[in-house]
User: Fold this.
Amino acid sequence: MKLRLDILRRKNADSEPYLQSIMFETDNENATVAFALTNICSGENVTDVEGKPVSPIVWEHSCLQKKCGACAMVIGSRPRLACDARLAEFAAEGFVRIEPLKKFPVVADLMVDRSAVFDALKTLGVWANGEVGAPDRTDETAYEASRCLQCGCCLEVCPNFYAGGDFFGMAAAVPASRLIDQLDPEQRKELSAGYRKKVYNGCGKSLACRDICPAHIDIEKLMSASNSAAVWSRLHALFGRKNRGVKK
Ligand code: SF4
Ligand code: SF4
Ligand code: FES
Assistant:
């Protein structure tokens, strides 16, 4: 298989982006974009289609098994994990365009700074500050939420998210939903308030995020459970059953 990789590169955050096209050839039918990037970076005297030398491409990766979320990037116009994007999918076109995620500041080449995601988790209090013990119970909702990779693919397609903004998006809401589900109403008061302010109020409910998630997390189900526990139950307590749904 022979494929042209059109990679949007940038030396550092302050430099201008440029497109570099590299022909990549492999006998491996299951080769992924991550496989190609690894081979290009470890190859000697690699040149692009114009014969110019290819400097090592900066990109993040760790597990190479769709488990860490580090290799998220835009591949063929969709945010995806590089270790989950098979080159064979693009063989008919003969090329694939590879770009960094656009919602985060670029560090270099395909590597972005996703601290906004981790800052959002800290702000919501999803990351424990003190001693951590095993949860009293684990159920389906908590398990589903715990599968989030914090890859940021859902944020890339979300019309309401931008890094550093007031709306945190699903990369924070999904992990938060695990705690919202597990804590009792008194314990989750602060988290619920943060969820209402930073997630519920800004979410347009279009569910574009649900269809793009590489972990295939049931975002709709988690959102519905969190809305019920952190929003509707509070409205019910405040206004009673008759006025449920009144927006105040
Ligand atoms: S919800 Fe899915 S797309 Fe969003 S950060 Fe978690 S794993 Fe990635
Ligand atoms: S439902 Fe729409 S607005 Fe809400 S997080 Fe998903 S993509 Fe963003
Ligand atoms: S390298 Fe871990 S998900 Fe791709």
The pocket of FE2/S2 (inorganic) cluster (ligand 3) is lined by residues 61-64, 66-71, 81-83 (CB under 6 Å). The chain has two domains: 2-112, 115-243. The chain has eight helices and seven strands. The beta strands are 2-9, 18-25, 72-75, 78-81, 95-99, 106-108, 111-112.
